[in-house]
Amino acid sequence: xxxxxxxxxxxxxxxxxxxxxxxxxxxxxxxxxxxxxxxxxxxxxxxxxxxxxxxxxxxxxxxxxxxxxxxxxxxxxxxxxxxxxxxxxxxxxxxxxxxxxxxxxxxxxxxxxxxxxxxxxxxxxxxxxxxxxxxxxxxxxxxxxxxxxxxxxxxxxxxxxxxxxxxxxxxxxxxxxxxxxxxxxxxxxxxxxxxxxxxxxxxxxxxxxxxxxxxxxxxxxxxxxxxxxxxxxxxxxxxxxxxxxxxxxxxxxxxxxxxxxxxxxxxxxxxxxxxxxxxxxxxxxxxxxxxxxxxxxxxxxxxxxxxxxxxxxxxxxxxxxxxxxxxxxxxxxxxxxxxxxxxxxxxxxxxxxxxxxxxxxxxxxxxxxxxxxxxxxxxxxxxxxxxxxxxxxxxxxxxxxxxxxxxxxxxxxxxxxxxxxxxxxxxxxxxxxxxxxxxxxxxxxxxxxxxxxxxxxxxxxxxxxxxxxxxxxxxxxxxxxxxxx
Length: 485
Prior knowledge:
The chain is an alpha+beta fold. It folds into three domains: about 25-170, no CATH class; about 190-245, no CATH class; about 255-285 and about 320-480, Nucleotidyltransferase, domain 5. The chain is about 40% helix and about 20% strand. The chain is built from eleven helices and 16 strands. The chain has helices at about 25-50, 60-90, 120-130, 130-135, 140-165, 285-305, 320-350, 370-380, 380-395, 450-465, 475, and strands at about 5-15, 190, 195-200, 200-205, 210-215, 225-230, 235-250, 255-260, 265-270, 280, 355, 400, 435, 440, 450, 480. The protein has a six-stranded mixed beta sheet, sandwiched between helices. Strands 1-7-6-2 form a four-stranded antiparallel beta sheet. The protein has a three-stranded antiparallel beta sheet with strand order 3-4-5, with no helix packed on it. Strand 4 and strand 5 form a beta hairpin. Helix 2 (about 60-90) packs across helix 3 (about 120-130). It starts with 5 loop residues before the first strand and ends with a strand. In the C-terminal section; belongs to the transposase 35 family.
């Protein structure tokens, strides 16, 4: 039972590659070829699937694919039979008692009952027809791309099955996996079998003499697993992944807790049940970043689209992509600092469980006014939650996400019951207090408390109802303000 709770613990480190780097062209070609192979693989699956599930006459492309399968099925089975003979030869070298009964895995043409092309079928087909995009990629990478397409189709079949039984959980009927756009580059993954650490300093990639200097990462005390090449902002992010061991799943003790309400003006409002004063992490930096970004993007986008028809001309430019990249880096830097400080405070106050409020589709269903909607939607709270979670877990602190309906309306000092919002249920709930102005909540007894701290404490109460059995004085006192730069 103990082994089942063990999870692999990974560390990921990123290296940014800009245009002009000696490996830029290599990564660019790899990702473009991966995108082409993805589309080719998806093309074969789609044409066969739609051809066999339609009563209409086959379209030219469908007929072409079906003819290709018909013309090459015998050659594919010859390869399968040859592989079977090799396996039989190896089995005959073993003692009689250890031999296994082997049967040739021969392919059959797809039918209406079995209209989905498997990974083994496609891999063998592309080898037989010498598919250009397949052979443009190093071994294992091309196979990984095919597996990715298969995975997406399996997800589609699973979604369709769920949709038929419970369509209310979906915003619309799931569609079959589509093609990647012509100029989109696809993420490429190198396993540790084809990408090696060399001379305790470099990453060596297949089919190129160029090497990537990763410095101290080459001697990182972990088992090197894989490298991901991710196209991003006209460049590439190289992610180097190490296995550092295994970790046990952290149980939520729910004794010394921290409740967090995420917002705009206060990026994080924190309430404790440990007797420590509440805290507010100000979000002015994020608002400033977004305000500057929106202003500059609006200016350059208007210049780019000036005089163009809705479907005419380009919609992106180098300067717009540069603006996006700069904003992303600033956001990530700020959230790393905020998450670091939150986890540091949790350690100093001996917190064992962090509870964060997050509603499903809270960005899509936001209704807090046009200006506040824009501010709220533009802040990547999910990134902050992710950073807090992995940093807290690394220190042995459990993190729980909970829905936060009515936490801003219910009065924490009055101990109001906090209901859960249900779609279609328009019940009007009465609460003891109310928000009298921005940032201030008034209770039944006319006591005033910071509105975000009130929500943070209610989020904590949603998960641990008796969390404040030892008193609420510390929560209701003036919160401490933290400005992270």
